[in-house]
Amino acid sequence: MNNDLVKLSAESVNLWFGSKQVLKNINIDFAPNQVTALIGPSGCGKSTLLRAFNRMHDLSPDARIEGKLVLEGQDLYDGHFSATQVRRRIGMVFQKANPFPKSIYENINYGLKINDIPKAERKGIIENALKESYIWDELKTELDKPATRLSGGQQQRLCIARAVALRPEVILMDEPCSALDPLSTLKIEELIVKLKKDYTIVIVTHNMQQAQRVADKTVFMYLGEVIEEGETKELFNNPKNELTGNYVKGRFG
Ligand SMILES: Nc1ncnc2c1ncn2[C@@H]1O[C@H](COP(=O)(O)OP(=O)(O)OP(=O)(O)O)[C@@H](O)[C@H]1O
């Protein structure tokens, strides 16, 4: 891919937990302002790859990474960045919404504080992040209420607001809708499509319809390897690899 069209990439990435190799020679380029879905059967390494971009394996003493994970030409592991700096530029939303046991306001304010955003700016940023995440109208009169009292779908949109408040360049989403009802799922999907105007988004999903609804590109992984990647429509309707075809048609997984 032309370098101007690459926001984030994995270059010859191998990853082990102890002696078990979980990622094998992964090469992927993620284009800016696009949504890319990572699909593949359970255990194929999707979350592990996503987490590697966010420096989440720093805390696993048995994790070993070879190769490069690159954001705009800069290696995320070459000592240039701290994990906090990486996470400011690459936000993450998890499978289960994980609001802090604090108020709605404080959930977003906390990240702003630890990233030294001046106090005078925080209120406006919080309002914007909630608006951007389509949740302001629902929550504007109860910002002081505990976030844990929100519905699962609202909690997940709050977590997305928490991520966007820091103005990351990339948002990684690890099965963000798997714990949600169909209506909340639809709202998050609409939000994802809207957010790609400003962010590069990578989403892990087991939901084939979801991948087709939200993703411009799709990457199919199997046993730690990338088997096929391409335009979502193409990969689903005209897969080049038999394994991909069997997976997207639901024959295994
Ligand atoms: N911290 C860890 N220590 C040891 N092994 C791990 C660790 N994290 C993941 N693994 C192993 O790595 C492999 C890949 O797991 P991963 O969670 O990346 O798969 P996945 O494709 O995201 O699966 P799922 O769709 O079920 O979430 C699995 O065999 C898992 O047990």
Describe this structure in words.
With 253 residues, the chain is of the alpha/beta class. The protein is built from ten helices and ten strands. The protein has helices at residues 46-53, 83-89, 104-114, 119-132, 136-139, 152-165, 182-195, 208-214, 232-237, 242-248; strands at residues 8-17, 20-30, 35-39, 63-71, 74-75, 90-93, 170-174, 200-204, 217-222, 225-231. A six-stranded mixed sheet has the order 6-7-8-3-9-10, sandwiched between helices. A four-stranded antiparallel sheet has the order 2-1-4-5, with helices on one face.
**Helical proportion, percent range:** 25-40%
**H-E order:** EEEHEEHEHHHHEHEHEEHH
- Per CATH, the class reads Alpha Beta
Under CATH, the topology is which? Rossmann fold
Whole-number count of domains:
1
Rg estimate, integer Å = 18 Å
List low-confidence stretches: none
Tell me the major beta sheet: 6 strands, mixed
Mean pLDDT: 95
Number of strands: 10
Outline type: globular
At CATH level 2, the architecture is 3-Layer(aba) Sandwich
Q: Count helical runs.
A: 10
Bound molecules: adenosine-5'-triphosphate
Span of the ends, CA to CA? 30 Å
Strand order of the largest sheet: 6-7-8-3-9-10
Strand content: 25-35%
Corresponding CATH superfamily = P-loop containing nucleotide triphosphate hydrolases
Helix/strand-derived category reads alpha/beta
